[in-house]
């Protein structure tokens, strides 16, 4: 299960305030649960089965199976919402070098214009059997477009035009230029869901295909998301018991209290790429019209010795949301043995690093909560089911939070400013 722990909200925001706000804004919750209102055309993600039904999962798994037979390396070409969720899931599940099973791995391109990094990608592909997946809803963004050209040319040089065509998948909008390219050259084409913005695509083919290639149990992930949807969109339930709603209210109350930053903090490095997914989700959804908490993240315990100082004694302009895993998995136990050398750490003899890490988490949260609101999102375990739950939880919370703030959760006008200047410089 997934829970919101409000025991460490602190003095700036209280559970009583959250409960009072729940009643006064309940119309927002009801509208969002029903998928009604001005954003109905952008809510394709709201009902999991719209884009992750059993029939769609059958097709995704069939395609992933064919690609796994043809290749050991899957290059996911995409930027932001087109790669963050798959990368977050693989990192959380313990992938090494992009692989869960040691034989099939996912690598990433289309998220940089750095020649240095692109050379490293090409060098990394040498000696591998490769397929590429270009994800581009409108096929106008420079980063994936330029990487697709580079890697397509590399494939042709390696396998020839016909061999390369069998190793290219594109995910885009039907009728787009990308769709035309696929029909002209024989590439596999899959549909980027039109009513789903990039940063809300975690539970669609955009990410489920690379996850399935790497060996993720996508059915368990989708089942977890379905369970979370049933919980969060149950309009008969007491709004005060809806954790996504209460989390959104904490964020709005923090804004009203003058806080301007939300730090997502975690003591498991496996959440490193999940935090990047969170930063894009909330940053691009809420950061407009001069509003929105700035989303940032902290990987503890390492950054307790850097950002932790600021969090404890800095300007106190932030709230800190913790991610906590309640139950250890099979690889989460490592007992520290005794030592015949007096290293002054004898008090750790026989301690499990799971418990040592928990002690650091508990102490840090208690210290920070003296001055900051510190809600905690608790997961029973880190597995596919709970990843599905947390993806849905954060997407629904972000939708609610933006509605409470009065901004459009689904556009990104600020992103277009740099694009227009860049295209002008490049002579487009």
Tell me what the structure shows:
The chain is α/β, with parallel strands linked by helices. It is 48% helix and 12% strand. It is built from 16 helices and 10 strands. The chain has helices at residues 15-24, 26-34, 49-52, 54-70, 84-92, 115-125, 142-165, 177-185, 205-214, 218-232, 243-256, 272-286, 307-313, 353-368, 384-405, 413-426; strands at residues 2-5, 73-77, 105-109, 130-135, 168-172, 188-191, 261-266, 294-299, 318-325, 376-379. A 5-stranded mixed β-sheet has the order 1-10-9-7-8, sandwiched between helices. A 5-stranded parallel β-sheet has the order 3-2-4-5-6, sandwiched between helices. α7 links the parallel β4 and β5. α5 (84-92) packs antiparallel against α12, α11 (243-256) packs across α15 (384-405) and α12 packs parallel to α15. The radius of gyration is 22 Å and the shape is globular. The mean pLDDT is 94.
Question: Summarize this, please?
Answer:
The protein has 428 residues and is α/β, with parallel strands linked by helices. The chain is built from 16 helices and ten strands. Strands 1-10-9-7-8 form a five-stranded mixed beta sheet, with helices on both faces. A five-stranded parallel beta sheet has the order 3-2-4-5-6, sandwiched between helices.
Element order, helices and strands?
Answer: EHHHHEHEHEHEHEHHHEHEHEHEHH
**Coarse shape:** globular
Name the structural class.
alpha/beta
Strand content: 5-15%
Q: What is the mean pLDDT?
A: 94
Count of alpha and pi helical runs: 16
Roughly how many Å apart are the termini? 50 Å
Unreliable parts: none
Main sheet makeup:
5 strands, mixed
Strand order of the largest sheet: 1-10-9-7-8
Helicity, as a percent range:
40-55%
Rg (C-alpha, Å): 22 Å
User: What is the number of E strands?
Assistant: 10
């Amino acid at each position: 299960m997934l829970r919101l722990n409000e025991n460490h909200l602190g003095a700036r925001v209280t559970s009583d305030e959250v409960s009072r706000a729940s009643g006064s804004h309940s119309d927002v919750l009801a509208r969002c649960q029903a998928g009604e209102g001005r954003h109905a055309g952008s809510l394709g993600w709201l009902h999991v089965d719209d884009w992750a039904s059993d029939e769609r999962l059958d097709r995704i798994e069939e395609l992933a199976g064919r690609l796994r037979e043809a290749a050991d390396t899957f290059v996911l070409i995409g930027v932001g919402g087109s790669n963050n969720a798959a990368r977050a899931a693989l990192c959380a599940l313990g992938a090494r070098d992009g692989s869960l099973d040691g034989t099939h791995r996912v690598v990433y391109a289309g998220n940089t214009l750095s020649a240095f990094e692109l050379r490293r990608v090409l060098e990394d592909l040498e000696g591998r059997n490769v397929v590429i997946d270009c994800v581009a809803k409108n096929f106008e963004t420079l980063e994936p477009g330029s990487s697709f050209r580079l890697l397509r040319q590399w494939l042709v040089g390696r396998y020839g035009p016909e061999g390369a065509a069998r190793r290219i998948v594109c995910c885009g909008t039907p009728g787009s230029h990308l769709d035309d390219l696929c029909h002209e050259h024989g590439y596999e084409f899959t549909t980027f869901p039109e009513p789903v913005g990039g940063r809300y695509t975690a539970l669609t083919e955009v990410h489920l295909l690379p996850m399935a290639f790497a060996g993720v149990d996508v059915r368990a992930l989708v089942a977890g998301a379905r369970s979370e949807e049933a919980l969060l969109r149950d309009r008969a339930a007491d709004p005060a018991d809806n954790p996504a709603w209460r989390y959104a209210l904490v964020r709005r109350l923090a804004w009203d209290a003058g806080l301007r930053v939300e730090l997502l903090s975690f003591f498991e490095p496996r959440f490193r790429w999940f935090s990047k997914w969170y930063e894009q989700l909330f940053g691009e959804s809420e950061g407009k019209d001069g509003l929105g908490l700035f989303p940032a993240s902290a990987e503890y315990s390492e950054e307790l010795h850097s950002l932790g100082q600021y969090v404890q004694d800095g300007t106190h302009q932030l709230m800190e949301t913790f991610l906590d895993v309640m139950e250890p998995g099979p690889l989460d136990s490592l007992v520290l043995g005794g030592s015949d050398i007096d290293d002054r750490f004898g008090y750790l003899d026989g301690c499990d690093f799971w418990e040592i890490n928990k002690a650091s988490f508990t102490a840090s949260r208690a210290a920070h909560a003296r001055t900051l609101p510190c809600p905690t999102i608790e997961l029973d375990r880190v597995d596919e089911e709970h990843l599905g739950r947390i993806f849905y939880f954060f997407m629904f919370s972000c939708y609610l939070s933006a509605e409470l703030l009065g901004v459009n959760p689904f556009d990104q006008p600020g992103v277009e400013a740099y694009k227009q200047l860049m295209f002008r410089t490049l002579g487009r």
